[in-house]
Every structure is written in C-alpha cells, then in structure tokens.
Predict the structure.
Amino acid sequence: MNFNGFYFDELWDIIVVGAGPAGLTAGFFGARGGHSTLVIGSLYDSHLARARTVNNFPGIDEFVGIDFLFKLKDQVEQWNGQLLDGEVVSIETKNGRFIVQIKTQGVISTCQASTVVLSMGTLQTRLMVPGEREFLGRGVYYCALCEGYLIRDKTVVVYGEGVALSSTTLWLADLAKSVLCLALTEELDGDKNLLSRLKSIENVEVRTNVKLQKILGENKVQGIQFMDRKTRAIETLDTEFVFIESRTVPAIQFAKTLNLALSSEDYILVDRSQHTSLAGVFAAGDITGGFKQVIKSSAEGAVAVLSASDFLKRRGTSARQLISERTPDNFGLPDLASVPEQSESIFTYLYNNLHFAAKYRKAQLDPEPLILLHAFHDINAVLVTGKYCPECYNYLPLVAKLSLNLPTWAFSVVSVEEEGVIEQFNIKHIPTLILSDSRGIEIGRKILSLIPKSSSLEREIYLMISKAQREHKIV
C-alpha cells in the first residue's frame, strides 16, 4: 500500500514508536547506522514541544523545545530515516517479527519490524473535575503550544504540577495579558533558572498548594472555582481559558500487550542496554522512569538503537529472507536469484538496506553517456562505501542499476568498516568509485560526492575512461 509515497507492508530493521527526544534520537542513530528506520508519532505530542526555554542541555546555551525536536527530525531525514505522523494501534509478535498496525488519517495499515524501540513517554492524566470534559476545546486545553495563539491579550489560568506547569506558565506569559499559575503542590517545580525567570515576569501570579474544584461556564469556560488546601478557603475567578498540566503516567499500552516487565510504578523495566524483558524490544526516555530530562531521554534513545543494531547483527537475517518479505514488487528491485553474477555483490549489499531499496526505484540513468559506455568491455568497478555516509546512500542504488545495464562489466561494493579496505584501495574520501581493467590495473577513480550537479555518474565514468584511453592506460 502506498500512502503519499510511504510504503506499508514493508519490513523495517527498526521501528521507533514515539517522536520525542528519545524517539527522534533513536531514529537518527538507527538511520545513521545504515538501518532501515521508521519513526512513528507526532513531534507535538512530546512534552518537550511545550517547553518555552530549555537551558540544561550540555553544549547548548538555550533552545525552544519544539525547535530542538525539528532539528532532530531533520537529522533523521538527512540520514534517510523515515518519519510518519501516525498513531500506532497495536504491536504483536509473529514468526520472529513485530507486526505494527498504524492509523494514519483514519486508515489502518501494517508494517513489520525486526526490532522495536518504545519511546512513547508519559500521558497526561485527567483531573476528573466538573467542567473539564464538558468544556474541552471550548476554554479547557492541555497543550499551550497548540492552542496558545487563542489567548493573546487574555487572562489565563494554568493549573497542575511538575516542571511542565512552570514551563507552560513561562510560555503563555509571552502571549497572554496575565497568567495565574495555580500549583497543586506547596512549591513550584523546576530548576533555579526557570523559577527565577518566572518570578521576574510582571504579568505572572503564582499561587501554590491549591486544588481546582470546578470549571465554570455555560457554552464555554467563564471561570473556575478552587480551594486553598491549607486554609480550606474557596475562591472563584473569571477567565475564559484554563490550561491543564496534570500528573503524568507512563504510556504503557503496548508494554502490557507484549507482556513486558514493569516496575511498581508501571514504568518499563530495562537493562543497561535499554533492552526490555522481550527479545528485540527496547525502551527509552520517560517511559523507563527516572529523571525526566531531555539529555537522559536522548541518551537512552541512542543506547537503545545501538543495542538494537547489535541484536540485528547477532541474529544475522539473510538478504534472501529480507527480500522475500518486502512489498510484492520488491521496491522495483530484480529478484535476487535473477541478478547477474557481475552484479551480485552490489545487490546483496542493496537488499540488506531499505534505504537503498527505496532510492533504487527512483534512480534514473543518463541515457546518452550510458550508450557510449557499452563500447567498453571487461571493466571492473569497485564502489567503496561506508555505513555513516549520506552520499553513499544516494549513489549505491544508481551504481546497482548501472550494473544491470553493463553486462560485460563486473561491479562490487566494499565498506571502509571492513578491515584493510582503506589501505588496500588508498581511500581518502567516500563514496569513491574505482575502475580497473581486466588485468587489475587501475584506470581511474572518482569521488562521487564531488560530481557537479550539471553532470551525471555515467558521464563522469565515460570521461574517466576516455581520458585513460587517450593516455593509453586501456589496452
């Protein structure tokens, strides 16, 4: 099934559930590590998206939460990872794979994964006070970032607990005429810098140790009723907007269906490698408990995917197994059994990477120089690539398609991660394409990332061979 260019029923190396700092970092490390990686979720569902100011991340003075998430998203896509703004409905195990059902714009579709990283974070609980459900969307909101634009020059109430309450108050203070921050706890939560900034803002009033009792109104919010927990005094206040930052609980719906081990507080239990109690399932971020910090979530996301990568290597799924489980047309790839011998090396490499498979379908050859290349025979072409090389992802599918169009040539691919490759081929940059004749004498080499946009791979190869011919390097 194709949905806006995204192919369902695929087999992915890694599916990440959740698009917060843990999930996006996991997606980045998975894609950068050469694994077919899919991140499912919305950036706006992350609690970090609501943070107006974050200044406790090493190496960065200060950033806005949603800006940081979009930078992570860009990094995932830069390394050919996929992001899907959808909702995971269910995760099941079948024949050693994970079957993931996804709801996107009302349509339910299915993907398969060899490993899964759970990073859904925590869910905000409902207060269960009169008026909360009735006025939802009509003055009662849970996302200041999403609905904050409604409150310009208005009087706003923010109620709840935790660091999120302080962060949301700071965010809304830039937009609203005045903000009343009502904390359930005796003190506001947050670091010294955050609390100091709140105290210095003139349009913010903070009341602590209070309990919201009712949200008042008829067709929309018109006010609130709250109680001072110490004096038991009850007060009412006129307002049209109430933003709620209530207690959070871990989002463990899939943990329960997969029978994962949980802590006494319902957080997913993991070991030092972020592995859960079920082989192939990893967890990262707030869903594992502990300190709720961006750096902790990002670090766990990285560890989870590095561990998933090791898990995939130990299991060693073959290329033939992978290709048999992909989409009916194998992403446009020829059947592995039908690939000519001269192309076997490069296609085996291609079949083991969904990034390459997805780009193979779109790879277009330059017809004019391709015709000219047919005049040359018995050329050996070696593509030197690497796992952490975006340009390698771009050129390998193109070289693979070229190999099928030049049947008298022999194509192969080697990785700089392999022992001795750098020294053997004297590699300075990747990707590098090295051509040699039937005697093994090098004709020439080309750093593919330096090919100008006005040219093409086929044209550069033809120019390289023509030059060698003029210099009598080709017999």
Summary: The chain has a mean pLDDT of 84. Residues 118 and 283 are 5 Å apart (CA to CA). The first helix runs from residue 21 to 32. The domain at 2-123+249-317 is CATH 3.50.50.60 (FAD/NAD(P)-binding domain).
